[in-house]
Write a structure and sequence with these properties.
The protein contains three helices and five strands; from the N terminus they run βαβαββαβ. By secondary structure, it is an alpha+beta fold. It has one domain. Helix 1 packs across helix 3.
Length: 96
């Protein structure tokens, strides 16, 4: 009375946006960089939802970063995981 292997549904584990942000920042800390979330609407048009700051330069080095694409590129989001609530996509680009 076991289930047939073909009928088993494989589900991906979900990772919250906050947990993914923390994973990305731990990986980027080695390069003295940090991923920030834009607060308020004033800068959202220019920076996007997420942007990268170089700590040594104290300057924005990347704008309009896609959480899922960046986490996949850095290897912090595994194949069996997915972002729990999808942020607005930047068309699959990691950052602009």
């Amino acid at each position: 009375m076991g289930k047939d292997r073909k009928t088993l549904k494989t589900t991906k584990g979900q990772v919250s946006p906050q947990a993914l942000l923390q994973r990305i920042n731990r990986a980027m800390a080695k390069e003295d960089q940090v991923l920030k979330t834009t607060r308020g609407e004033r800068w959202r048009g220019e920076l996007g939802d997420h942007y990268i700051v170089d700590i040594n330069l104290n300057a924005v080095i990347a704008q309009h970063c896609d959480l899922e694409a960046l986490s996949t590129e850095l290897g912090v989001l595994k194949n069996w995981e997915t972002l729990a609530s999808r942020w607005p996509s930047t068309e699959g680009h990691m950052c602009h």
